[in-house]
Design goal:
Elements lengths: L6 H24 L12 E5 L33 H10 L3 E8 L5 E3 L20 H5 L28 H7 L5 E5 L4 H11 L4 H4 L2 E5 L1 H10 L4 E3 L1 H14 L13 E5 L11 H9 L3 E5 L12 H4 L9 E4 L2 H4 L6
Parallel strand pairs: 1-2, 1-9, 2-4, 4-5, 5-6, 7-8, 8-9
Antiparallel strand pairs: 2-3
């Protein structure tokens, strides 16, 4: 009569079988091997509309980027209504813009915390009225040759729009609003302004920025997609823990996910199933070039070749007019 196997050995075999089955399930549930590639193309997020570009090499938080622009190939300036319209006309699916609260409680559409770099004025945006900001020349400080010439000086007076003007100019187009401060009160004020919009308009607006103001927006307008470093980290850490099952954590619902290119391959079911899962939870996936530092974008034909097959989310670009014709629609 054959000798019975020890009980501990049976348990080991059972445990091994369970591990193999789970691994097989995780692989089958997340692999892209059997995913259909083709059809829908990536969509384009135009950073600050059509704008002057610059090298991000050596850029720090306090770098005046207007003083280091590339030789201009067009006449548009960032965060202007004409630049945003040019972006949509070029093929942008979504336009990003920056906002700051003003001393009279409005929201100015402008990138920098202070106006000294780009304009002929001085001071902090939140200490200046909207009317005073509109009187500034926002093209004053741009130079591509170290200050020998200033090609936009005198051409930017009155071009700094208010958020109200942008919302009026683009009543239906998708907008991504960047709150540049860390002030919860500013987020609450933005939420109050956005609450005046109807549900259809809010469905095409998202807000991202610092944890405190974004939390204030989300608390007051939970139907609006939002994103901050904290919310994205919470979503992705939870997803890494359970995403192999196909489950999307609640922390990932109705949010904006800006995924650095270098991190994306580590996500379960990247790219097509990941995007599909997030969209089913009401969220939007934006792929950012490189490590995601200082607004790195997919700005050349060579960089577009790095977008993985099957990715149907949004790609971040600083050169939408040049990049849009290269995307197969």
């Amino acid at each position: 009569m054959p000798e019975a196997r020890p009980r501990w050995r049976k348990k080991r075999y059972i445990l091994g079988a369970v591990v193999v089955l789970l691994a097989a399930f995780a692989f089958a549930n997340n692999t892209q091997l059997f995913a259909e590639v083709g059809g829908e193309s990536p969509k384009l997020l135009a950073h600050r509309g059509v704008a002057q570009t610059f090298s991000t090499a050596g850029v720090e938080n306090d770098t005046c980027t207007a003083e280091r622009i590339d030789p201009p190939v067009h006449g548009f300036l960032e965060n202007t209504i004409v630049g945003m319209r040019a972006a949509f006309d070029s093929g942008a699916d979504l336009v990003e813009l920056d906002v700051h609260i003003t001393s009279d409680g409005q929201f100015a559409v402008f990138h920098d915390w202070e106006v000294d770099c780009r304009t002929d004025g001085s001071g902090t945006t939140r200490d200046i009225t909207m009317a005073e900001l509109k009187a500034l020349d926002i093209g004053y400080g741009y130079t591509a040759d170290g200050g020998r010439t200033f090609p936009f000086r005198g051409r930017g007076v009155g071009l700094m729009p208010s958020l109200d003007e942008v919302l009026s100019a683009f009543p239906h187009e998708p907008l991504l609003i960047h709150v540049k401060s860390e002030d919860a009160a500013e987020g609450a004020a933005l939420a109050q302004r956005l609450s005046e919009l109807d549900a259809a308009r809010l469905a095409n607006i998202a807000v991202y920025g610092g944890d405190a103001p974004v939390r204030a927006v989300r608390d007051r307008l939970p139907q609006v997609r939002t994103a901050s470093k904290g919310s994205m980290a919470d979503c992705l850490l939870r997803y890494e823990a359970i995403g192999w099952t196909g489950i999307v954590p609640d922390a990932c619902a109705n949010t904006e996910l800006h995924i650095p290119e270098s991190y994306a391959p580590w996500l379960w079911a990247w790219p097509s199933k990941f995007v599909s899962r997030m969209e089913s939870a009401g969220s939007r996936v934006v792929l950012v070039a490189g490590s995601g530092g200082f607004s790195e974008g997919f700005d050349t034909q060579e960089s577009l070749a790095r977008i993985p097959d099957g990715f149907t989310g949004y790609v971040w670009t600083n050169r939408v007019a040049e990049v849009a014709p290269l995307i197969d629609r």
